[in-house]
Each structure stands twice: as structure tokens, then as C-alpha cells.
Records
---
Amino acid sequence: MMTDVMEQSGGPTRPGQPAAQGAGSVAATSPTGGHTEPAEQQTGTEEPSASARIVQIRERIDEIDNALITLWQERAALSQEVGATRMASGGTRLVLSREREILERFRVALGADGTQLALLLLRAGRGPL
């Protein structure tokens, strides 16, 4: 997994990219081992309590990401089953009123980004149009 890190110069870089002139090189930390980085490079701060809190927050973010991925996959599978069941019974491939309902629900809750998220969810379940 590739993550952005901050160099001492303050500019973002990706692990493996050459460091900016005058800055130290940044080593990537692999989840399975490899180079280790000082806490500042992992969290963006040298302050121990802030660094510890950032690590704690990121652990929760990772848990949420894992749950989102699991739910995304479950939703896509259920949506595919709905489509297959509908088509096997002689129905249509899509029910546009249902798709509009989902788009609107996400738009109201999340704004423009919600619409984009809903479009991705719909595509994952039914495939591209």
C-alpha cells in the first residue's frame, strides 16, 4: 500500500520517489516488514502524545475502511442477485426509478460526493450501462 508522507521540507512525496534537494530520503514502511520510519514521518509530528493519538485514529479509520469494503462487496452481490432474479422472471435489467431513489438518498445525505458514491455503488451492483 502506498501512502503519502511528508518530507522535512514539508512537501508531499511518495515512498520510492527521490527526495527533494537538501532533504533526507524517506523510507517506506511495509505492513509486512521492511524499513521503519521515525514517528514524525509516519504521523507528521514529533510530539509523542499527538503522534500516539494519530496512530490511534488511523487504526479506527482502517477498521472503518475494512467495514466499508465488506459492506460494498455485500451490497454489490445482493444487487446482482436482485438483477438476476428480476431478469430470470422476465423483468427488466434495470429499474430506473429505484436507481433515481438511491441517487437522491445519497445526494441529500452527502451532497455532490454522495451522488458520485451512489453512481459507483450502482455500477458495482449492475455493471456499467
---
Amino acid sequence: MAEIHALLEDADNARHSIKDAVSTSLRDAVFENLYLTAIQELDELSTHTRVDGHKMDEIRVRRLDGAEIEYCVTGEVEVELQYGSNSDVEDDFGMRLDDSYPYKARVIAAAGKPLDIDAEAIQLRIDTSSFYE
């Protein structure tokens, strides 16, 4: 009985390790996508928009087959919105403010390499509707 308990505990530990590794890979790839890709929804909000970070709320596996794993990731992107140039801000003619907006990302990875995620292939949608309220 002790051997079965140990086996189940080892399986549970392995599952948590895989989950943590996938979560870290997804977090890094989504941040890279947010940081490197000019996202129209964010660029429309200010003269200069800078991505400060993001947090993931949920990771779901939408599809899993022999070739691919499709993840659905939801979270929130944290941005700095700047109105005017840097010199305008320094001269009190411009301003900066921090805000955050929810996002949804569709991520596809090879089933044999679930941690090898191409940041440029992530399909990302950011909901900026709260900015206009």
C-alpha cells in the first residue's frame, strides 16, 4: 500500500512540476509578445504606450492531440500611457499614467515540445473598452 501511495505522490509532484514549467514558458512568451509587438489596441490609447508587465489569471488547455497543444490564456497587461513627448512631460505639458487591461491569448505549441513557445505566433487580443468609459 505504501508503494502505491508513493507512486501517486510522485505522479502528483510531476504534474505540478510540468504545470509550473508550462506556466513560466507561457508567461515569458506572452510578455515577449506584448513587449515586442506593436499592439494596435494599446497604441491607440496614448502618444507613447509602454508595457510594464502582465499577470496571468488562467491557463486552459483548449485542445490536445498528437501534434499540438492549444492553450487559452487570460490575464491583464500593465501599461504606462504617456501623453506628449518626454520634454512635454518634464515641462508639465504632458503626463504619464499607469493602467491595466484584460487580455486573451491563443497559444499553440507542439505536443512533443510543450515548453517551446514561439512568442510571435501568439494570437493576442486586448480589451481596452474600460479606457473609454
---
Amino acid sequence: MGRHRSDPLGIARLALVGLAVVLLLAVIVVGARALLSTFGSEEPAVGASSTPSARPSAAPSTPRVPTVRVLCQADRCPVFVRVPGGDVLIDRELARGEQASYFQPELDVVLDDASTVEVFENGTARSPGPPGERQAFSVKRPAQ
């Protein structure tokens, strides 16, 4: 009769395993949300444009001009764009023909080789730099 006793350590083990599973699921959810938010911050590559009717806007006759648009013209174009003091929007190499457009009011841009990309600031082409030159600059959206 004395052989049948409840093992208090068995319940504690089950509680610890359950807690570990909950923590693992929380880490997976946070990581997935962070990964999905980075994919959603970029514009589609060249050739994958959306139609004007797909965008809801009050004035369809005036196209929305990005604050910065970067178009890669070499095989690899290292690009870094961020909101000053805030989120990093892109920090990777673009492939030839790939572009990235951003509409935030103010942006910091760093180009590892300014001659490999074509940059448009508020719709105006920026003059390319000499081959191999690293350029860092800020762009502000004009007041409307």
C-alpha cells in the first residue's frame, strides 16, 4: 500500500516542459512577424508593377512619387536605406534591374559604389558618383 504515491517532481517536470513549449512558440511567432515585416517594406522588382486601379487614392491623375528610388545597373549593388534614427528599410545587395522605392518623409541612404546604381530623389535623377566611391546622403520629401 505504501508503494503508490504521487510524484511531485513529475508535475514540476510537466510544467517546465509546457513553459518551454510556450516560450519556443513565442520566439517563433516574433521571428516570423519580424521576417514578414522586412519583406513588406520593399517595392516589387522591375516588371512587377501594380496598376493604378489597384491603389486607392483620392486623385488618380497624380502619380505618387517616391522620396527615394534606387535602380541597380550592375550585377550587385549594395544599398542601405533607413529612416533617420529609426527603422532600417533595406540593407542588402540588389541584383541587376532590381529597384527599391520608399515614400517616407525623410531617409538616409548609403551606397557602397555610387556608380552602380541610378538614384532618383523625389523624382529627380541624382548624378552618379565615380566608380568605387561610397556615398552617404539624406533625402527629404518636399512640403506639399
---
Amino acid sequence: MPAGTLQAAATRFSAAAPFLVALIAVSGVLTASTRLSGPSDLTGTDYGRQVLAKTVALIVLGVIGWEHRRRTLPALADGKPTAFRRLAAGEVLGFATTIGVAVSLSRTPTPRPTDQPGQEEGSSFDTLGFALPRTQVADGGGPSCGSPTPTRCSRSWSQPPS
């Protein structure tokens, strides 16, 4: 990529980045507030500690972005694209770590309890508003979800409860 094009693209993205980081932070706070019972859940539960880890990762990425704006953009203006490559490699590592924390967070049960088994947050009930019907396994064993097949899907179709 020509140096002028790289500089123009980096400058434009850098101008939007603070707004985007703030937007991500606000959405994270709102999401966490619906899944945590109180501030003590931040340090008292696995989910809360992972929320804190993701917050730290966002702050680190924000600092990297600020350094990018402060150091790399002037270097690009001076015709030194290697500064961009070096910082971009660090950003990729930071984003990969953040994505790993986010995946782990998405697989961690929230601390909000439910008195209805099968209706935990993240279950089919949470998504659909009703529990999926359970099917019998072919060997006559106990209830099991079974793997989805066209036959199982067509036989187990039901309308959501009103």
C-alpha cells in the first residue's frame, strides 16, 4: 500500500476509534449490569472476574490506540511505514487476547440464579422464550436432546406457548 494511502486510512480510522471504544465500553457496562446481581459479583464470581479481565483488555487496547495516534501517525507523515507495521502487530496480539477473553466470558454461566432448570441465561429458553422439547434416544434410554436430523426436527416441531 502506498505510504500516502496508508497514512490517510490510519488517520481516518484513528479519528473514529475513540468513539468506537466508548461505544464498546457502554455496551459492555449495560450488558454486564443485566447479568450481575451487584458490584460484589465482579470479584466474587467467575463471570464477574472475566468481565473485569475484558475491561482491562479494552483499556489496554485503548492505550495502544492512543499511542498509535500519538506516535505512529506522525511517523507515517514522515514516510516511515515500519512504525505502523510494528504497532499493528501489537494490536493484533491485543485483539486476539481480548477475543479469547470474550469467548471465555460467553461460555461462563452468569451469577444470576434461576429456579427453573433449563431456563438459565444462554439456554434455548433464554433465546426462544420457551424450552425445547426433549426427544428419546433410539435405544430407548432416558430423555436426551439427540442430534438434530430432518426427521427429529419435523416430528418435534411445536408452536411457542402463548
